[in-house]
């Protein structure tokens, strides 16, 4: 069956230097999509842009910006306002935290609120008017299965906001033929789990729960051609989501696997 995925000629991706963001960039670059890639890690971002160009990608524009501070968010909004109409916006930038909420560092907590909530909302606001005007475009907001867990703290709470915000947007803009997708990956093999917070995650979480970032991006892009608002890649992850939503889980396993 032929894909009904909307034609994508231009895409703007945040958190693009590693993991799921980089996987989106590689797959879209292979389709000759013009890319704007945002990340705070300059060296990794430039390396990715160079690699994509060496593979014959269309124009790739790296944008170094830290979305955890106001200057970085403002700079990205200014760029979005000046761009031609986008076909796709992917709000992927994010990071995690672990441990009890009352032990979180103030700076880290505030940065997470900005990166997971303020930045995606502002970037959607900047990109949507042109999409609505021409009745064409799509937005993928990368949420998380962690938002369904009772032990995921402020990380899960911010991702819950992003999911609810995405649902609201979907209701507003679907009459204008704009596609909104909430992507809920489970454990993906990305740099997210290489940080100090999650250094031992790969040892504590069973291998069968992990999915490659490339598969996550592939399923997400494929599902843009469907009527589904929510995208949960993998049958196992969909089963886990069902169990979590219906409280069919073991508290002992949650304590062991939630990281």
Short structural summary:
By secondary structure, the protein is of the alpha/beta class. It has one domain: NAD(P)-binding Rossmann-like Domain (Rossmann fold). 46% of the residues lie in helices and 15% in strands.
Give the tags.
259 residues; alpha/beta; Rossmann fold; two-stranded parallel sheet; 9 helices
What would your notes on this structure say?
By secondary structure, the chain is an alpha/beta fold. The chain has one domain: NAD(P)-binding Rossmann-like Domain (Rossmann fold, 3-Layer(aba) Sandwich), CATH 3.40.50.720. It is built from 9 helices and 9 strands. It has a 7-stranded parallel sheet, with helices on both faces. Strands 7-8 form a two-stranded parallel ribbon. The radius of gyration is 18 Å and the shape is globular. The relative contact order is 0.14.
Task: Give a topology summary.
Layout: E1 10-14, H1 19-29, E2 34-39, H2 42-54, E3 60-64, H3 70-82, E4 88-91, H4 106-134, E5 138-142, H5 153-173, E6 179-183, E7 187-189, H6 201-204, E8 210-212, H7 213-223, E9 230-231, H8 235-245, H9 251-257
Helix pairs in contact: 1-7, 3-4, 4-5
Order of helices and strands: EHEHEHEHEHEEHEHEHH
Q: Mind telling me the CATH class?
A: Alpha Beta
CATH architecture type: 3-Layer(aba) Sandwich
Secondary structure category? alpha/beta
* Average predicted local confidence, pLDDT: 89
In whole angstroms, the N-to-C terminal distance is 40 Å
Give me the CATH fold name: Rossmann fold
Task: Please list the strands of the largest sheet in the order they lie side by side.
Answer: 3-2-1-4-5-6-9
